[in-house]
Design a protein that fits this description.
By secondary structure, the protein is mainly alpha-helical. Helix content is about 75%, strand content about 0%. The protein has four helices and no strands. The radius of gyration is 14 Å and the shape is elongated.
């Protein structure tokens, strides 16, 4: 997937790199879900996604605060929601079937 454009590039190298890594993890998780893959692998992927996403959100929010980004509060709420969805998916992956997972992954992808 190297070089793929996911439509979320902002022109800041480190931010764009994080966006690509997050997008690639989401694609891998979706592929794993579609083929009803190994639950352990799904949880590892979600943990990787949570780690990368959390560190990215810290950086992004710091950059936004430094530039007085006008919608920072709303952006923080979206970040908190995404992190909660990732946590919820990891917690319930084996308990719920893939329809719910696909729906939640779709929301994260958007």
């Amino acid at each position: 997937m190297d070089g793929a454009n996911y439509g979320n590039e902002v022109g800041i190298q480190i931010v764009d790199r994080d966006h690509r890594e997050i997008s690639e993890l989401l694609v891998e998780i979706n592929v794993n879900t579609e083929k009803d893959g190994d639950a352990g692998r799904k949880i590892l992927l979600l943990r990787d996604l949570a780690r990368v996403t959390y560190s990215h959100f810290i950086l992004e929010e710091w950059m936004m605060a430094a530039t007085n980004y006008p919608s920072l509060a709303l952006h923080r709420q979206r970040h908190a929601w995404m992190l909660e969805e990732i946590r919820r998916l990891a917690e319930h992956w084996g308990k719920e079937r893939s329809g719910l997972m696909r729906e939640s992954m779709g929301y994260l992808w958007e």
